[in-house]
## 1
Amino acid sequence: MDVEDVLSDVVTMEDLKKFEKEYHNQLTTGTVSQETKFHYAWCLVRSNYPADIRKGLILLEQLIKHEANDDDAKRNYLYYLALGNSRLKEYSTALQFIKAFLHMQPENMQAQNLLVTIQKKMESDAHKGMAVAGALALGLSAVVGIGFALSKSLKK
């Protein structure tokens, strides 16, 4: 699957409900397994809703800080932290997570491709920001120019 496809992949409602139910069932017993928490977080970061994505990121951060007991688990959490932050357009945070992943496994092509995609999106957003700033400056200059011209014509 292409990185752009991964970034735009949306969880099915069926999967989200399934893993949400499993998570909440375990939560009521007092113990949520690492696997269940990861599956639920994995679904949430693939949601269309920013609030769900943020909730998934919180779960992934909890997993990586408190429950990551092997390198495979850490890499999964880092990858989906990068992915979720990318989906929220928080590219600098996403970049930190994908670089941490690549520090552990530099030859991973999927992570390398995500890194390149994040960098391109950061660059694109920077260009859009500069274009907006330029347009605002041009608009402000026009307003000032018109104001100046009007004040000159009123003085005559």
Note: Helices lie at 3-8, 13-29, 34-44, 50-67, 71-87, 91-104, 109-155.
## 2
Amino acid sequence: MAVHLQNQINLESSFLRQDAGKNFMELSDIFPPIQKLVNQMASASIKEQTISYSVITENDVDAVIQLLKDTFFKDEPLNYYLQLGECKDLEEYCKKSIPDACSYKAVNSNGDIVGVYLNGIIRKPSDDDVAVPLASKTSHEKFKIIMQLMDYIDTKFSIFDLYPDIDAFIDGKILAVDPRYRGKNIAGRLTDYLIEFMKKNNYKIFHVLCTSHFSARVCEKMDFKEVFTLRFDEYLVDGKQVLCPEKPHVAARIFVKEIN
């Protein structure tokens, strides 16, 4: 009796497992098309949205920083290589040029910021000005490594040496676009707005320092001129290479565009 009952239990359990497996297979056959449909609907929604462009203001700071945390803070090659993590000093670095009123945002139909180009106005120092190293302004050890690279480049190259007749130039600092909105020329449109600002305000030189190969390719496609290159394997601290991001990111490169 006990054996018969146990056999019945085993048989029913087997049927249940088979049914469960069948149901799972049926559901697995159903879900991919549903997920594909959801993705298509989301993509269609994005395609239908209108993107507007305007100057970034202090009221946008929180939304701008959140977009950068989701993109640039994680994806920029040096940040990724160092696994930068939470960095309030980088947040402050991103905020400091906003008062110059030459940073631009892309906003979708829902009012969400989906792209930003942070830029600053760099003015020629006077003979009495004493340069303060960027690395001295941060206590974040990983961010300090990046700032030390910037300080080193400043000792090797100056836009004001290349263009001694200018009093100021525009520095393109950080360009970031929400991954869902890439491929829609948002970066190009943000750059167009900046160049229009430069023309209206008589800024002749647009300067960009690229640590990403892909950013450098964008500059090349937009007819920027490369004026300085520092390979990461040639930048040594105490005889050792300290920055070694994955290829194709092999150098820090400075590009300029002359605006007529």
Note: The two ends are 98 Å apart (CA to CA).
## 3
Amino acid sequence: MLFWHTFGYYHILAMLNGLCALWFINCTAKGRVATWMAQNLHNALESTDPASLLGAYRDLWVDLSHMMQQLGRAYSGMYSVYCLLILLTTIVASYGSVTETMDQGLSFKEAGLFIVAFYCMTLLYIICNEAHHASRKMGPEFRERLLNVNLSAVDQRTRQEVHMFLTAIDKNPPIMNLNGYVNVNRKLISSVSSINSLDSTIHERKL
């Protein structure tokens, strides 16, 4: 392959990196907003009207949770194909690198296949890891902040708002889901790694 032959792959790399960057920006933004809200819960409880502020925070949290769920639905088709492309490319590159290395030894071709597999797994890791962090900051960490509130030190309306806030978190779990196809979290990475390991094991047994 000549150097100018690689020009046909640059737009593919730009697309893969661009979609990964878009997902990273969206998840990071939602995670930071959730962190900011959790950090300001203490200030809300110390205000003159904590019940009203908690109610406003609850409405804001529900809107943020719905935005996270709608993000997965809106981009479900695009990112489903994206994840499938990464999965297939990783499997083919891993299989090709292992078979060629075992048959002919390590060379630049096999090193290139290793780099492709590592690159695809890195993209998948970024997507899954950012979705996991955003869901954790909006879900378990936020819920833990509410559970640590000293209910005996607040009035009845504030206690009611805390219970309603916890109910809203339970009924609207902030899960990144591609329209029911798959939940985007760290388990997706382990599933892909298991598939690659199974593929390599099958090839070794054939040999």
Note: The chain has a mean pLDDT of 81.
